[in-house]
Amino acid sequence: MSFGPDLRARVTRLALENAVEHRSEPRPESILGALLGFDPSLRAQRAELVPLVREVIAEIAPLSPEERETRLRSLGGPEPRPVRPPRSTSGDETSQDLPDLPGAEKGRVTLRFAPFPSGALHVGHARAIFLNDTYRQRYDGRFFLVFDDTVGSAEKRPALDSYDLILEDFELAGVKLSKIYYKSDRLPEYYRHLPPLLQTGSAYVCLCPAELLRHRREAREACPERDREASWQLEAWEGMLSGRYGEGEAVVRLKTDLNHPNPAFRDRVLFRISNLDHPRVGQRYRVWPLLEFSWAVDDVELGITHVLRGKDLVMEDEMEQALWKAWGWTGPRFAHFGLLRIREAKLSKSKF
C-alpha cells in the first residue's frame, strides 16, 4: 500500500525526534505507537504502516546526530503532542463517569500498573493505564509503575529495550508517575517473606517433577513433601538458594484446598529455580518468585490501596488474599474491568 507524502513526512518527523531525543537509532515500536496516538484512524492500517516506518528508519540511519537535528528543525521541530482535555472538577456526576473506588479517600489512594517488559504496550494496557490515572487524579493520589520483570520463561523473556519503550509510552500518554519500581531489584524482600510461610506450614518445598506435579494436582493428591516438618522445609529452601537443587528439581508451593474446583488453584507454585540470564541482574539470582507472590508482597509493602485489573485475573485475587491471610496482613481492595476485544486484532506485546 502506498501512502501520501504528508504521512511520510510525519513518520520522518517522529523518527527524527525519537533519534534526537535518545541519541540512538529510532525504535519502530515507539514511532508507530506515537503515529497511531496522533491519528487513531490509522490503526486499521497498522500492518501496512510497518514497512513505511522501517523504510524511514533506514533512510535516516546514516545521518549524524547533527544532521538529524538539522533535518528535524527543517520539518518544524518535534511533533506537537495532543492536548488531553482538562478533567472537570465540578464534582457533577454523569452517566459516563466511572464509579467511585470502594473505601477511597482523597489524598490516600495509591494505585499501580505492573507490566511484564517483553515488548511495547498495546491498547489493552493503555486502557488500564488511563483508568488508573483517572482515579489517581480523582483522589489526588499516587500512581506507581512496577515492572513485573521476574525472569520469565524461555518462551517469554524480559527485554532490556522494553523498559524504555514502556516509559516512552507513559510519556507519550501524558501520564504522571509517582514512583517506578523493578521487581528484579526486590528479590531479597521476596526471599525474606517466604520462611514464615514454611515455618507455619502454609507453604512447602515440592520435589515432584513437573509432569508428576500436574498429575497429582489433577488427581487431588498431595505430594510427599507437603506435610514434612518445618525444619526440613527451611533446609530445602536454603538448598534451592544455594544450588543444591537444579532447575526443575524443586519449587515452593502454597498450601490451598486440594479439592478446589479449579485445578490451577490447588497448591500453586510460589517460587521456582531458573538458570536464565536476566537483562538487568544477569544471574545474580537463581530462585525467582511467580508474579502472584511478588504482587502479594508489593501491594502491601508499597502501600497500594486499590488494584485495578481485568476480570480474567480473579484467581490472582484469591492467591493474594490467601497469602495475606497466611501472613496475617490486610491487603488492598480489588476492582475489575471487563476484557477488551477488538475484531481481527491480537492484544499482545510479545511480538511487534
TrEMBL record:
Pfam families: tRNA-synt_1c. Gene3D superfamilies: HUPs (3.40.50.620). GO terms for molecular function: aminoacyl-tRNA ligase activity; ATP binding. Keywords: Aminoacyl-tRNA synthetase, ATP-binding, Ligase, Nucleotide-binding, Protein biosynthesis. Residues 109-351 form the Glutamyl/glutaminyl-tRNA synthetase class Ib catalytic domain. This is Glutamyl-tRNA synthetase. GO terms for biological process: amide biosynthetic process; tRNA aminoacylation for protein translation. The keyword Disulfide bond does not apply. Residues 67-104 are annotated as: Disordered. Residues 88-97 have a biased composition (Polar residues). One of its GO terms (cellular component) is cytosol. InterPro entries: aa-tRNA-synth_I_CS, Gln/Glu-tRNA_Ligase, Glu/Gln-tRNA-synth, Glu/Gln-tRNA-synth_Ib_cat-dom, Rossmann-like_a/b/a_fold.
